[in-house]
Design a protein that fits this description.
- The chain is mainly alpha-helical.
- Among the domains are: 93 residues, no CATH class; 115 residues, no CATH class.
- The protein is 61% helix and 6% strand.
Length: 478
């Protein structure tokens, strides 16, 4: 085993300082909850083993933090900074075992300043919840394979199961592990180790599997919707512009120097350890590139590739180009300072009379107007079609005593609110419908209220007004 001593203390100091500054910035963050964040909070108020679009772990984590710290934005987002700190230390521990204590320290410092980590420490997301568990799964699997210990393999399976309860992308681990085993004898393990790995994973993920089977495979269906070309009647098409956009975005996600180093090592995959680690990184990046070519792929869809990727790029640069590694740390650290600074300064700076962080502002202001209109109209229920409106209303109006309802869907529900909180027979009395155009309610009276002010923030240039309608009319809307 490489010399692995002396890294933990310095790594704790570096990671601890960065994390403390991030927590301080969160306390002064002036952005609204993004639609997904508000929805995750709402899921946490309705604990379950699965949800419409994601597995349940993010809802459980947010619920745990808000039970202790209250329902403020700070408590909802706090897990991000803490979980990324834990991930940095877990990856450093694996780097110490595979490389050296010096490499471990650089891995910890590099990870905690990665651009996607900086963003994930400001906004709570499923990628962030997945991170420490996936990293721990890698650590325990490498240990299990080298030491031949089934309990470590089972623990690896549990960690990957927990990662999958955050985001199904964790399942990439298994084909990558098979490829790594094919490339290097030390990673092949024994049948007993593989069975322990699979059993640990299966037991952990089982509640969510059962939930999906009893809810029309809801989360799986949504995942297929995201793939896009799977549902398309015309099948896949080749979109090289989409591929170029996704690939280019990875220089921003992982950092320009580290992503370049990862690609360089991929073209020169020696010694064997690098090939094994690349087996846990490059296939994921390749799969998402193919998805981008066939349809579309968001920049964060390949994040799982970089937990092993950083164990390739950082030691390579440390050995071959330490000045470039230092430059990478400086560049990423600047991004890590800039992002929280923008959230603290919001709504400044502005461009074209709109905040630079436009999509993260304006939700709470719109919800306040809607809640005021509901109060003035005497409505007991607020109805909307848009998931973003419903999610923030559920959060901003958590103490208003209002029922937040979605329009009844045509066919399969399109989001969690349509699935579980659509307007129904139990909803009575006047309803405030928040819509971009007057509702068509033949035979029912409707009373329009004033148009909502959407000049600043996420709803800029969107016409939204409230209409007081009967519950019967609301149930008839589609």
């Amino acid at each position: 085993m490489p010399e692995a001593r002396g890294w933990l203390g310095p790594a704790l100091i570096v990671v601890g300082i960065v994390t403390a500054l991030r927590i301080l910035a969160l306390a002064f963050d002036r952005t609204d909850l993004f639609v997904d964040e508000a929805q995750y909070w709402f899921w946490g108020q309705n604990l379950d083993f699965g949800y419409y679009s994601k597995p349940p772990l993010i809802a459980w984590v947010i619920r745990a933090f808000t039970e202790v710290l209250g329902d403020g934005r700070f408590a909802i987002r706090l897990p991000g900074a803490l979980l990324h700190a834990a991930t940095a230390l877990v990856l450093a521990a694996l780097a110490a075992r595979l490389h050296s204590g010096r490499a471990a320290l650089w891995v910890a410092a590099s990870y905690i300043t990665l651009p996607f980590v900086a963003l994930g420490s400001l906004l709570i997301s499923t990628d962030t919840i997945l991170a420490p568990f996936f990293a721990a799964g890698l650590l325990f699997w490498f240990r299990a394979a080298r030491e031949g210990r089934a309990p470590l393999a089972a623990l690896s399976g549990v960690m990957i199961g927990l990662a999958a309860l955050a985001k199904y992308a964790a399942i990439y681990f298994f084909p990558c592990a098979v490829l790594a085993a094919a490339l290097a004898a030390p990673l092949r393990g024994t049948v007993r180790l593989w069975l322990a790995l699979g059993l640990g994973f299966a037991v952990t993920i089982l509640p969510n599997v059962v939930w999906n089977l009893t809810h029309d495979l809801s989360t799986v269906e949504h995942t297929m919707d995201n793939v896009g070309w799977v549902r398309s009647a015309s099948g896949p098409s080749l979109d090289f512009g989409s591929l170029a956009e996704f690939f280019g975005s990875q220089f921003a996600v992982f950092g320009p120097v580290l992503f370049t180093a990862l690609l360089w090592v991929a073209a020169n995959p020696r010694p064997p350890l690098r090939r094994v680690l690349l087996a846990f990184s490059l296939p994921i990046l390749l799969v998402v590139c193919v998805q981008a070519l066939l349809d579309r792929a968001y920049a964060n869809w390949a994040v799982v590739a970089y937990y092993a990727g950083i164990l390739v790029a950082v030691p390579f640069l440390l050995e071959r180009a330490p000045k470039l590694l230092a430059a990478s740390l400086v560049i990423n650290a600047m991004i890590s300072v800039l992002l929280p600074a923008l959230t603290v300064l919001a709504p400044w700076p502005q461009r074209d009379d709109q905040p630079l962080l436009q999509r993260y502002l304006g939700q709470a202001a719109l919800s306040a107007q809607i809640l005021d209109a509901a109060s003035r109209s005497g409505a007991a229920t607020v109805l909307a079609r848009d998931r973003a409106i419903l999610a923030d209303l559920a959060y901003s109006g958590r103490d208003a005593g209002l029922a937040i309802r979605a329009v009844q869907p045509e066919g399969r529900p399109g989001n969690y609110f349509e699935q579980s909180f659509a307007i129904g027979p139990a909803d009575q009395g006047p309803v405030l419908a928040v819509l971009p155009a007057p509702p068509v309610c033949e035979g029912f009276e409707q009373f329009p209220l004033s148009q909502f002010d959407t000049r600043i923030g996420a709803w800029h240039k969107t016409r939204l007004a409230g209409y007081v309608i009967t519950a019967e009319c609301a149930r008839a809307l589609r």
